[in-house]
């Protein structure tokens, strides 16, 4: 029995009872008869509790990281992959053979793989709503795809516009609108980013990183104007599969 005891994996985040990852990996372990593999949520109120998890979970082999810890976990890591360093956010952690904790970003890969099939020649520029850790992977993916992007936040700063600046001309110039903020996620499903939805057209892509609910108010409002819509479910599957490969190489 000893060789089937435990390879533990988990998700680091806050208020993550709804999480996709636990269900996905638990089902994967069952379907593939990966005995001894378990996946659990490490739901902590502050990142300062992270070292205790590491100390008290000796069988831990790898972790996913979600909001709001994709950036603030970095100082607790021993190493970063080259891409995670460039992106400035991590969503996958691995314990190396030497016991070091290394951070990776598979968000950018998941987003890129899920967006690519939707792209047409006129999709040249994107607005990224939100400036948190998830937005950084999105920006990196867009750069890899050769798509120019601008961040949107509540306050305008250098290289960032505010929501009040978005108008008909903005929508003419930006054909992809991506919600990388948590606005509209369960349980606050009536919420939506405050943008002028009337300017969406059939030439636009509205992409929401949120997957719960499957169709957010952001996506519903964009779809009503003819936009092509996509939620974050496929992105999550792609990034989770990439994380699994990292943990097992």
Automatic annotation (TrEMBL):
Where does the Shikimate dehydrogenase substrate binding N-terminal domain start and stop, copy by copy? 11-93
Keyword presence, Cell inner membrane: no
Q: In which pathway does it act?
A: Metabolic intermediate biosynthesis; chorismate biosynthesis; chorismate from D-erythrose 4-phosphate and phosphoenolpyruvate: step 4/7
Q: Which domain of life is it from?
A: Bacteria
Keyword annotations for this protein? Answer: Amino-acid biosynthesis, Aromatic amino acid biosynthesis, Oxidoreductase
Q: Which GO terms describe its biological process?
A: aromatic amino acid family biosynthetic process; chorismate biosynthetic process; shikimate metabolic process
**Keyword Oxidoreductase found:** yes
Checking CDD domains in the record gives: NAD_bind_Shikimate_DH
GO-annotated cellular components: cytosol
Q: Which residues form a coiled coil?
A: none
Q: Name one GO molecular function term.
A: shikimate 3-dehydrogenase (NADP+) activity
List, alphabetically, the PANTHER family matched: BIFUNCTIONAL 3-DEHYDROQUINATE DEHYDRATASE_SHIKIMATE DEHYDROGENASE, CHLOROPLASTIC, SHIKIMATE DEHYDROGENASE
| Descriptive protein name | Shikimate dehydrogenase
